[in-house]
Structure formats: structure tokens, C-alpha cells
Write a structure and sequence with these properties.
The chain is of the alpha+beta class. The protein is built from eight helices and four strands; from the N terminus they run βααβααβααβαα. It has a four-stranded antiparallel sheet. The longest helix has 11 residues. It is globular. The termini are close together. The chain binds uridine-5'-diphosphate and magnesium ion. The site of uridine-5'-diphosphate (UDP) has 8 residues, from loops.
Length: 153
């Protein structure tokens, strides 16, 4: 497979509280992407400070920290051809009011402060986020039995 990538997806506390875990995972599975890491965690402020290091000076940063630590998060690593960009398209615009119907944010959320899911925004950022959120031993290298039907051999 060319352009095989991995990306970090996290179901935020509102997505978990609203029992959307199954519906969100379903969208990645039905597309054909492959799950290589999955865990539920209570995220620490230290991890979030690194994860959102580019947003520290934003006025919404304190409330973003409160939101992201308000309950458990489900973190996942998905693998596949062009998965970083495809995932951003599947997740939709940061502001759900601008997110297209059919995207996760467009289908399940209304306000930018509660947009249910995180996804890495570039291949480079994805690598950094995956190593921040997951130990190497928590990621599984495996080949799915339907690989030949998803990709040209
Ligand atoms: N956010 C917010 N208010 C804003 C902009 C962003 O609460 O005005 C939150 C929102 O949860 C968003 C996160 O900060 O998902 C990270 O912002 P970013 O611009 O990286 O958007 P994303 O990559 O999540 O689409
Ligand atoms: Mg971002």
C-alpha cells in the first residue's frame, strides 16, 4: 500500500458521555481503515498541555483544558492509505456549525466548544501525537484479512 499512514483520533469527553463511541468507531471501520491502537483514559493536564501546545495563548485554552479533563477520553490510532487527510474530512470542520452533514462533527455536534472528536491535522503532527498518547508496545502491527479487497495487491 502506498502512502500508508497512521493518525491519532480521540473521542472527547462529550462523545463518551453521549454514548457515541460505537458510532464513531463504526465510521472508520466501514471506510476500511484499520485500528492499530485503542484505550480509554482520563487525560492529564500535562499531556494536554503538550498536545495543545500551539493553543496555550488562546482565550479558550482554560475552558478547553476543563472540557478535555471533564471525563474519560477514548484514544485510537487508525492506519491506512492517506488516513490523516481522510480522517480530517470524515471528522469535519472544527466548528460544527460549518461542518458538512455526513461528517462526524456535522452529524453529532453543534458548538465549537463541544465537537466530540479530535483528529491529527497533518502526517507530521500525527506522528508526534501518536508518540505522545501511546507507548510503542500499545500499537499492534497486523494485516486485516480483507486487505486485498480494500487495496490493489
Ligand atoms: N476550540 C474551542 N474554541 C475555538 C477553537 C477551538 O473550544 O474557538 C477547541 C475545539 O475543541 C477544537 C480544539 O480547541 O477541536 C483544538 O482546536 P484546533 O484549531 O486544533 O481544531 P481541530 O484540529 O480540533 O479541528
Ligand atoms: Mg488541531
Amino acid at each position: 500500500m502506498n502512502n500508508c499512514q497512521r493518525t491519532l483520533v480521540a473521542i472527547k469527553p462529550d462523545g463518551v458521555q453521549r454514548r457515541l463511541i460505537g458510532q464513531i468507531i463504526k465510521r472508520f471501520e466501514q471506510r476500511g481503515f484499520q485500528l492499530v491502537g485503542l484505550k480509554m483514559l482520563q487525560v492529564s493536564e500535562e499531556l494536554l498541555a503538550q498536545h495543545y501546545s500551539s493553543l496555550h495563548r488562546k482565550p479558550f485554552y482554560p475552558s478547553l483544558l476543563r472540557y478535555m479533563t471533564s471525563g474519560p477520553v477514548v484514544a485510537m490510532v487508525w492506519e491506512g492509505h492517506n488516513v490523516v487527510k481522510s480522517t480530517r474530512m470524515l471528522v469535519g470542520n472544527t466548528n460544527p456549525a460549518e461542518a458538512a452533514t455526513g461528517t462526524l462533527r456535522g452529524d453529532f455536534s453543534i458548538h465549537i466548544s463541544r465537537n466530540i472528536v479530535h483528529a491529527s491535522d497533518s502526517a507530521e503532527v500525527a506522528q508526534k501525537e501518536i508518540s505522545l498518547w501511546f507507548q510503542r508496545s500499545e500499537l499492534i502491527d497486523w494485516e486485516c484479512c480483507d486487505h486485498g479487497n480494500i487495496y490493489h495487491p
